[in-house]
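Anyone able to model this chain together with iron/sulfur cluster?
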Amino acid sequence: MKGLIFSIKRYSIYDGPGIRVTVFMKGCPLSCWWCHNPEGISPEQEELTEVYKIGDKEFVKKRMAGQYYTTEDILKVLEKERVFIERSGGGITFSGGEPFMQPEFLAEALRECRKSGYHTAIDTSGYFQSEILKQVLPHTNLFLFDIKHLDPVKHLEYTGVSNIMILQNLSKIIKSGNDIMLRIPILPGINDDVVHLNALRDYISGLNSGSIKMINLLPYHRIGSSKYRKLGRDDRMKSFNPPSSERMKELKKFFSSTGIKVKIGG
Ligand code: SF4
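re: yes, here you go
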């Protein structure tokens, strides 16, 4: 079986514990305003035209986003990094895009990675048909699960989908007992007002689950904006500013009252 992948990152340290290999899978049903991986949203291979400016001169570069890999190809990448992965307590993380968009490949790859002794994680938006979970739960050590906004209307406005299925899937994973790291992007002007933050803290406290091992607060940053510029696409976040480090420290303290360990960054 083959999966469509737009990047494989070695020595990744922000996508779960230890040193990891992160596999970025093509296709995402969301279209978040702040997405840093716009080349991961289409579920198809696509030729991207990137425009670079140096001084007054423009350079055009074409590249293909998305290559097909088999599970064996991924295992070969992992084998080359096995020493670093094992010594650091790392593993493999399937990210994207949304990995659940390629459910059969995801399930097979997770199963084979577990068989070969690797710690496995899925970095997910949470937006997927819950039937798929049965296939992956037994082969997944950790879910990196995003909560972007609790208000379904705001969620729809900024991501293109409602959050109802996402929160239902979170409950299902909690019930399964698999480990979870909640990832909250901090997006000034979108989800960081006091009403929403209080609601979010109460919601997380109410989950009352030992499965949630950590809350990762991910400050919005502008790294993605150069990609939008290069691809000639509209950057809907251009008037939004990243949160200050002081603000992030405040929020770390704020969410620590849930009793869950909080970290700034992945
Ligand atoms: S869920 Fe992630 S990959 Fe999908 S559009 Fe949002 S930020 Fe991008």
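Residues 2-264 form a domain with the TIM Barrel fold (CATH 3.20.20.70).
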